[in-house]
RNA sequence: GCCCUCGUAGCUCAGUGGAUAGAGCAUCGGCCUCCGGAGCCGUGAGCGCAGGUUCGAAUCCUGCCGAGGGCGCCA
């Protein structure tokens, strides 16, 4: 509905015009809203992309198309212009923006911005997957929140999503961890290559006398992970234990399958995967000459298991694991799975700033910034929003002081504040006896100011942004959209002309503006909701 | 040496092959007895370098320069 009607009207008119002129349009005619409003409300590059079929320049073709369009006299269109190298620009009546408002009300917070594009597809999103040998640190936070937001975006576009956390609960790092705990409990230094963090000493102090140190430490670390993730609103559907792969025989089964498919060979007393056959730099060892598996082997079995449960896999890995992408995809191909259905996303490092100083992280040198400390300092909302501000392809600078501040230059604050302002207006109106009525009863044509219409224009873009953000696994795109809406609201709010409760406003105007207030509020609350950030009704923190 | 990511305004960052490359902060200049000034409006300034593909490149390709990360029968 709404704007979509306009788009379909224009597309259909363009198809007709192309037919009159004698060119074949592409399957999907590009129709976009120009960044510069001087270029009209809608624009198409049709003349440029089809000019090769035409005897003349793109502009000449545009002329011919416009002549055909004007002869057909398209509904809602006020003006058609040709600009630049051959763009055809449409100016349409503002009525489509009122449809955007109505549609926003109909969809509400739980439906606005959501689509059904992914219905019928199951996606497994694996993220965090941190070793249970210590607390989560600030670097884990980025992957944790990114993975959760990607999962939410996929849900918002109709996919069935499984959030999964893989636990490396066997192997030598667990032994090292237990030895480090035991050493600290006995008052000694951890062994060579052991874990040096302060948390080892802290946790060792709680270590009961007569207990299995490894199992106790495992439970302690896992509890830490669960707690801090819970504070951030991250809930996993599956916590997948590496040990369970041993117990179920899944690792041996995967090796057997690879052997049957002749994808492995024996050499130098080891078992090798023919990963070079599938684009890897070199073949990889799966079983070492001492009979133990390498790190890769259980992981291969694990991914094979995930493939049996989902149509698409998404992995969120830290930058230090990018070198494993090629071998894992090769292993999946060797097992007969589609390597393109495994989408590995790598998050670049986070530089954490505090008081203008960079805080260094490093698990084995003892000076880690725990994710818990970040959450305690800036709160769950600011932690999520700030991590999501930037593309994970770039290194990030996370300013703790800014994220915790109640200033407009703090994006999470200005965004939430915009929502609170709208709520205050609605509450204030109600106190004055001016309740918002049914949207159907309001005269929306009273909304004519540019700042009012700008809010509706931004609201219109929500669905395509959510779709794009989900497709690109790029939550920061939705963050940018929410910030854009908040910015439009904050500018509108400050403009005296736009006031809802100004003296002299007619009851009809108040009603129309209250409808706008609610639409903008729905947009902010829906966007923040998908991102897992709360939409507060008030920003007051002191009571 | 090879692989991955990045390089856009003084700073932090946006930018699905499209038109005059955008925000925020900082600078400078205005506004403000107001639905919450924890504010608003305006201003100047930029695509690392060199080729290529294209009607059109910040975007795609190649090379170079620079930053970070990775290159074990470790995990």
Written account of the structure:
With 543 residues, the chain is an alpha/beta fold. The chain has 3 domains: 90 residues, 2-Layer Sandwich (Gyrase A, domain 2), CATH 3.30.1360.70; 172 residues, Rossmann fold (3-Layer(aba) Sandwich), CATH 3.40.50; 121 residues, Orthogonal Bundle (Isoleucyl-tRNA Synthetase, Domain 1). Helix content is 48%, strand content 13%. The protein has a 5-stranded parallel sheet with strand order 6-5-4-10-11, sandwiched between helices. A 3-stranded antiparallel sheet has the order 1-3-2. The chain has a 3-stranded antiparallel sheet with strand order 7-8-9. Helix 4 packs across helix 20. The two termini are 44 Å apart. It binds one RNA strand of 75 nucleotides through helix 6, strand 9, helix 16, helix 18 and helix 19.
Largest sheet features? 5 strands, parallel
Q: Name the overall outline.
A: globular
Indicate the mean pLDDT.
Answer: 91
Task: Indicate the multimeric state.
Answer: single chain
Strand order of the largest sheet: 6-5-4-10-11
| CATH architecture descriptor of the largest domain | 3-Layer(aba) Sandwich
What's the level 1 CATH class of the largest domain?
Alpha Beta
CATH superfamily of the largest domain: HUPs
C-alpha Rg, in Å?
29 Å
Distance N to C terminus: 44 Å
């Amino acid at each position: 509905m709404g704007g979509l009607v306009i788009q379909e009207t224009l597309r259909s008119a363009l198809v007709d015009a192309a037919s009159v002129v004698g060119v074949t349009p592409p399957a999907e005619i590009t129709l976009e809203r120009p960044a510069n409003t001087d270029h009209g409300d809608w624009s198409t590059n049709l003349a440029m992309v089809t000019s090769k079929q035409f005897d003349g320049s793109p502009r000449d073709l545009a002329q011919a198309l416009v002549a055909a369009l004007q002869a057909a006299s398209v509904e809602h269109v006020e003006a058609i212009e040709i600009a630049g190298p051959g763009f055809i620009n449409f100016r349409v009546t503002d009525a489509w923006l009122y449809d955007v408002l109505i549609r926003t009300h109909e969809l509400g917070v739980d439906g606005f911005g959501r689509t059904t594009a992914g219905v019928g597809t199951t996606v497994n999103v694996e993220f965090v997957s941190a070793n249970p040998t210590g607390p989560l640190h600030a670097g884990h936070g980025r992957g944790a929140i990114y993975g959760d937001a990607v999962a939410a975006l996929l849900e918002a576009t109709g996919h069935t999503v499984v959030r999964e956390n893989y636990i490396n609960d066997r192997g030598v790092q667990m032994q090292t961890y237990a030895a480090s705990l035991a050493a600290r409990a006995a008052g000694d230094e951890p062994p060579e290559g052991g874990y040096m963090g302060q948390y080892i000493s802290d946790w060792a102090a709680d270590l009961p006398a007569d207990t299995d140190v490894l199992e106790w430490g495992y439970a302690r670390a896992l509890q830490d992970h669960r707690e801090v993730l819970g504070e951030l609103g991250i809930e996993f559907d599956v916590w997948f234990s590496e040990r369970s792969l041993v117990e179920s025989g899944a690792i041996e089964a995967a090796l057997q399958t690879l052997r049957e498919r002749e994808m492995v060979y024996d050499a130098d007393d080891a078992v090798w995967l023919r990963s070079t056959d599938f684009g890897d730099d070199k073949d990889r060892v799966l079983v070492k000459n001492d009979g133990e598996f390498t790190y890769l082997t259980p992981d291969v079995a694990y991914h094979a298991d995930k493939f049996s449960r989902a149509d698409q896999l998404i992995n969120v890995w830290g930058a230090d694991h990018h070198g494993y992408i090629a071998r894992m995809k090769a292993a999946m191909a060797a097992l007969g799975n589609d390597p393109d259905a495994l989408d590995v996303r790598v998050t670049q490092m986070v530089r954490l700033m505090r008081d203008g100083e960079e805080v260094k992280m490093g698990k084995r040198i003892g000076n880690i910034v725990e994710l818990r400390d970040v959450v305690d300092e800036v709160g769950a909302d600011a932690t999520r929003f700030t991590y999501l501000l930037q593309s994970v392809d770039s290194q990030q600078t996370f300013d703790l002081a800014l994220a915790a501040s109640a200033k407009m230059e703090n994006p999470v604050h200005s965004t939430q504040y915009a929502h609170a302002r709208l709520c205050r207006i609605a509450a204030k109106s109600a106190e004055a006896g001016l309740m918002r009525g049914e949207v159907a009863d309001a005269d929306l044509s009273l909304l004519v100011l540019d700042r009012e219409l700008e809010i509706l224009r931004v609201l219109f873009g929500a669905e395509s942004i959510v779709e794009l953000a989900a497709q690109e696994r790029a939550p920061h795109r939705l963050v940018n959209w929410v910030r854009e809406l908040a910015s439009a609201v904050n500018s509108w709010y400050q403009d005296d002309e736009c006031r809802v409760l100004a003296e002299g406003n007619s009851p009809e105007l108040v009603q129309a503006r209250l409808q706008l207030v609610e639409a903008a509020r729905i947009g902010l609350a829906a966007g923040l909701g998908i991102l897992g950030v709360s939409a507060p009704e008030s920003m007051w923190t002191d009571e």
